[in-house]
Amino acid sequence: MVSMINAQKHPDQYGCVCWQPEEPPFGENDETLEEKRKQMLQLHSTEGMSGADRAKLCKLMEITYYRQRHDINAVPPSSLSSLKSSWLYLFCLKGLSTHFQLLTDIPLLRRIMEGFEVKGKRILPFFEEKPTNDEVAATAADVQRTVVLPDSPRLII
């Protein structure tokens, strides 16, 4: 799926192997990356979020990763709404997982599925043995009515 070569890089203290690429991909520049960003906006305007399932989108997300990181790491920072309007597919599962893999060299969806396979065997029996919502004695509203809560937020167990 993700074709950038991150395997040779060592992760930083946050687990990132490509926090801010130093230069655009080979054969690309700011103008060509902007054109590809606009292609993604056009794809979204014609197909909506279902356009995320196209192989073309994954390729565009990979190629524009340099520009995405540039916009995300901008100083002063861009607003979330500005990022969302510029990079619509970054906020869908396929786009986010592609970006995350380029950032960390971890295939997010595969890692999640592997975790479900391993940990699901323990989690499922846990939920099968625990009471259902019908059997829960107190709700949050009950607690608020009967217990004096502190003014500052705290974890109540």
Topology:
Blueprint: H1 30-47, H2 55-63, H3 65-72, H4 80-86, H5 93-104, H6 108-129, H7 140-146
Helix pairs in contact: 2-5
Summary tags:
single chain, mainly alpha
Q: Helix fraction?
A: 40-55%
Q: Output the structural class.
A: mainly alpha
Helical segment count: 7
| Beta-strand residue percentage | under 5%
Mean of pLDDT: 86
Major sheet: none
**What global shape is seen?**
elongated
Rounded radius of gyration (Å): 22 Å
How many β strands by DSSP? 0
Distance between the termini: 44 Å
- Would you identify the regions where 5 or more consecutive residues have pLDDT less than 50? none
Descriptive notes:
The chain is mainly α and 157 residues long. It has 7 helices and no strands. The protein is elongated, with a radius of gyration of 22 Å. The termini are far apart.
In short:
With 157 residues, the protein is mostly helical.
